[in-house]
Amino acid sequence: MAGANDNNTGQVLTTTCTLFPNLNDQTVMTYKTIGPSKLISDELLSIISVVVKSALYQIFSAFGMTTNFLNLVVFRKMGFRDTVNVSLFALSVSDFCSLASLFWMGICYNPIFADSEISIDSRGIQYITGGWPKFYFTRVSGLITAYVTFERCLCTTMPLKVKSIVTTKRVLVVVICLYLTVAMSIAPIYVSTHIVWKWYPNKNRTQLGLVFSANRETINSITFILNGVLCNGSFFFVVLCTVVLVTNLKKSMQWKKTFTRQKDKKGGKENKASKMVTLVAVVFISCLFPGSVFSLAMYAVPEMNAGESQQNLFFALASLIHITEAFNASINTFVYLQMSSKYMQTFRQLF
């Protein structure tokens, strides 16, 4: 856990339970002598850390930042008269920032950088400069995905009223509120954490590192509850809305086959948009499902947590979950190219 060397194991456990935005296995493992029944050895964990955190983090994040930058350019060119474009533009912003944070985390964990003669404890500093920002933008992306699927549910359940209910300005207000809501939920972390010059005896030098306030454990507990509700709540809401969307799309297709042979261009456009959002939601569910299961497993198996007997397994799985989240944030461009003819046309015009 980043910066954990100033606190006891219980505090480390509380912080890492906030869905591991701030992992630093090298620091946490100095806390506690772990028993012989480790499922993942220290040597294997070191290899996983180098391969995943120092290599895959940067590969996936660099690729994802590129695809999301393309999304931003294309949606800006398409304009924001369509409310879906506003939401998907905001989603691309949060995905881009999440991946940029992961890229920085990869740099901080890279031994070439972390063990060099730099004046910062990069593995500790990433706690609030990389880990929590990534956590923030990933949760914003989850809430925006939940909102987009909800909006498409409205389009399929009350198509005649949705245009008067969902406007560009209202969508913009909703998006801003989502960003602010998640920001307020993690703000306490920055109140209890500070960057100062510290003496590191094991390095025999002074570096910029983290210190924590005395009430850190209480603050982390509150933050965990807030973010646990937002994280799992948005996930299950996306699942619910996706089920409704798929059901309504099937009914719509069946109705058209039964009662009309004429092409409904407007209805066809709405169905295409709904299918695209459904696919985005399915990718989201598939990629974030392991993280949701893992967060529940941390309760069911207390030993699988930082500072406990299976902390190596915890760190290994958590780093892999970062990769699945990065994949989710990177792949939407290909969904848009496949499902949206207007996006494809604009993309070809620009590139």
UniProtKB/TrEMBL annotation:
Keywords: Membrane, Transmembrane, Transmembrane helix. It is found in: Membrane. Residues 67-336 form the G-protein coupled receptors family 1 profile domain. GO terms for molecular function: G protein-coupled peptide receptor activity. It holds the Pfam family 7TM_GPCR_Srw. One of its GO terms (cellular component) is membrane. Gene3D superfamilies: Rhodopsin 7-helix transmembrane proteins (1.20.1070.10). The chain crosses the membrane at residues 55-74, 86-112, 132-150, 171-191, 224-247, 276-301, 313-337. Coiled coil: none annotated. Its main location: membrane. PANTHER family: FMRFAMIDE RECEPTOR (PTHR46641:SF2), FMRFAMIDE RECEPTOR-RELATED (PTHR46641). This is G-protein coupled receptors family 1 profile domain-containing protein. It comes from Lymnaea stagnalis.
